[in-house]
Amino acid sequence: MDFDGLIPQLLNLFASxxxxxxxxxxxxxxxxxxxxLFTLQGLSVVGATLVVAWVTGQHHLYFSAALTLLLKAxxxxxxxxxxxxxxxxxxxxxxxLNIPTMMLVGIVLVIIAFNxxxxxxxxxxxxxxxxxxxxxxxxxxxxxxxxxxAKAIPQVIxxxxxxxxxxxxxxxxxxxxxxxxxxxxxxxxxxxxxxxxVFMFQIREQFDSLxxxxxxxxxxx
Amino acid sequence: xxxxxxxxxxxxxxxxxxxxxxxxxxWGGLGALGILAWRRFFIVSRILFPLGALVGLVLAVLAAxxxxxxxxxxVLAVGLPHLPxxxxxxxxxxxxxxxxxxxxxxxxxxxAGYFRRGEGTPPGLMCAQYHNFLAxxxxxxxxxxxxxxxxxWECMAMASFFLVTANHKSPEIRQxxxxxxxxxxxxAIAILLCFGVLQAQTGDYTFANLRAQSLPSFWATVAxxxxxxxxxxxxxxxxxxxxxPEAHPAAPSPVxxxxxxxxxxxxxxxxxxxxxxxxxxxxxxxGVLMIALGLATALFGVVFAAVQVDMKxxxxxxxxxxIGLAVAGMGLALLFRAHAMPGLAALALTAxxxxxxxxxxxxxxxxxxxxxxxxxxxxxxxxxLGGLLRKMPWVGWLVLVGVFASAGLPPLSGFVAEWLLLQxxxxxxxxxxxxxxxxxxxxAVAIALVAAxxxxxxxxxxxxxxxxxxREETLRTAHDAGWWERAGMxxxxxxxxxxxxxxxxxxxLIDPVTQQLVGAGLADQAxxxxxxxxxxxxxxxxxxxxxxxxxxxxxxxxxxxxxVRGRYHGHLRRSPPWDCGFAWQTTRMVDTAEGFGQPIRxxxxxxxxxxxxxxxxxxxxxxxxxxxSDRFWYxxxxxxxxAVEFVARQVGRLQQGRIAIYLLYxxxxxxxxxxxxxx
Lengths: 221, 679
Prior knowledge:
The complex is a heterodimer of chains A (about 220) and B (about 675).
Chain A: H1 3-27, H2 31-56, H3 60-87, H4 99-123, H5 132-148, H6 152-174, H7 179-207
Chain B: H1 16-36, H2 41-66, E1 72-76, E2 85-89, H3 91-114, H4 123-142, H5 146-164, H6 171-198, H7 207-212, H8 217-235, H9 243-250, H10 253-278, H11 284-306, H12 311-338, H13 342-377, H14 388-391, H15 393-407, H16 413-426, H17 434-466, H18 483-501, H19 503-518, H20 523-526, H21 546-568, H22 593-603, E3 608-613, E4 625-630, H23 631-652, H24 659-678
Antiparallel strand pairs in B: 1-2, 3-4
Helix pairs in contact in B: 1-2, 1-4, 2-3, 2-4, 3-4, 3-10, 3-13, 3-18, 4-5, 4-10, 5-6, 5-10, 6-8, 6-9, 8-10, 9-10, 9-12, 10-12, 10-13, 11-12, 11-17, 12-13, 12-17, 13-15, 13-16, 13-18, 13-19, 15-17, 15-18, 16-17, 16-18
């Protein structure tokens, strides 16, 4: 088989899947769907990592991939599912203002990201350097999702998606971070989601809603 | 660095600096014991405070033994890693340590009898802060690198803040404490920046390195101005004086005594250290600036002191005045030094240091005296005091000594200091610059004016509190101070008398300091004709003999006493009917503080901001109210405060309360940073 042509194609496939998923998450109204999209995004990160690991022979990347699979594709989605069940928001629909505008802004962000990533990928020697722009775009899109959402759970998902994108960026640019750092980040994310879960219960107890606009009342005048 | 070189050496192996460090540590230890004996009133007041006084005395003796004995250094292995604390004992530090130890001993003795149960902070905690305050002041004097200096400086500010807010339940006191803390921090920032400029990008903050740098004249000026601002804020130099009249009345009296008598002096020490020691290429106009600033401060302080009605506020303004005089003297020394006239610089510096020692003694004495009055009567307002000399003879007579010294009357300490200061100002025609020759005599006139007004203020202070008739019924039950308080006041009064009577002896103590700072001394010339005759320059030019004055004054007093009692009263003629409406004197007829200050308020009207409310002529119970306040407050502080508030409100708009907006901030920041990297 002719790997030389195939490998970059595979990587680009996963990368573009991530980008499309990021856009999909940006415009998705249903919380349940959002979790599914997030799981898919996790799986594409795993796929991309596996490809890079296989091509470059970096064995620690297999561990990274396994860890990501366990955490991002199985454990956290499962936690989120449990969370929305217990909070009883499984079928909630969020009203999103002006999806077309958000899409347009998203496209602008992608352009900016590619523009930014250009000089950085010149420096990188990785085979996956072409995908750095996409990774950066995913980071920005996830960030934007956090900004535009009004409910707590989609914000948390935005945060996790951003972490996914960062992980992808690290893999793309430098074959992944050192194992210790990755383990640390994985643990952080896990702890973070637990704490945020507790917070959500607290928020709902206080305000009878998960709408974070209620937090504005906390501002001191 | 070697742990000490030279020095006279008290013991083999142990140099004075080591003993002094031990004494300072003992102060710190007494503070810790105070915390342990938190509520044991007896232990704190009868054991710990007298022990603190003893340590102070020992410190003064040790410092005196080290004076002129050469420079000793030590490196303490405490502090941050690779940043040990450097200590150094030279003549300048030793002189201030003598003042600190001796005056601190007197105030501690007084404090042993002063602090009572149930007044705000428990005595044990007061004891801890009090001794921390003393120890950190000693630390400021001993520090030999910017790091140790700033640590000690901030400890001093913190300890004094907690002491000021001892009665923290009253909102005015909390407010005064906050104002003090604010200005102290402004000053500390300026000092920190000053050290930053002085190190000239070598990254080494030891004073030895700062001393070795030769800065370009612009940066030297910047450093000097920062030092003037920073230390001026602590000393109460215009326009950063506003905390003084608020904090001093708020603090318990021994604390006011320490702050006014000693803490302000550490600020002067800092100015001397930076202006004379670390910056060794002075420029003439720095001196002129200091003279102008000092005299403005002095005049401002004394005029405000004259119109105060609160006795501790009056003393606080009087402290501003005295600090102003010291700064002016220091400026003159700097001017002479810049013009390479070491002899005259030594004269001006000697006058300044003499003033420092003298003010430390008499102002502490006066402040603790007001403490005794406050305890006996519960009253700070001069309008409700009066006639206390009969009820409190000990306090009355001892305070009289302080009042005489403060008013600059011979043969007490204040006179010597002011006389030396005037002498040094009268010598300026020796300067090469015509402009300066014109300016400086005006300064001498201003000093004379300040001295006269200070006398006026002190007459008011003493007369209204101790003379005349008691204005309130409660004053008739006032009691005299206890023995501890008397002992402390006696010690401080003895200091005033000794400084007044033996100037040649004390100038000999100051001599090593001026030798160190300006390379000339006054001791040989001053004591040329024996201990009883002070001749700072030449005998033809000026001389002062305290014993002679004492003799003269005593003779005159005895003569007057004999004439009044023996002759006049002996032939007393009683003639009742025609009494001009002055049949008997009531308390309403005794001169009040407002009344006594009235002429000054009229003459110096532009200085003040006076608010008067006059009663209507038909009012049955007329109330006359007039309030004198500081123009600086309205012209400088309030606009600055409003500006800060405005800016804060504008910045506060960033705080929307919406998480989305906050996220947007970080998003935009991220984008901005990425674009910066792209560049």
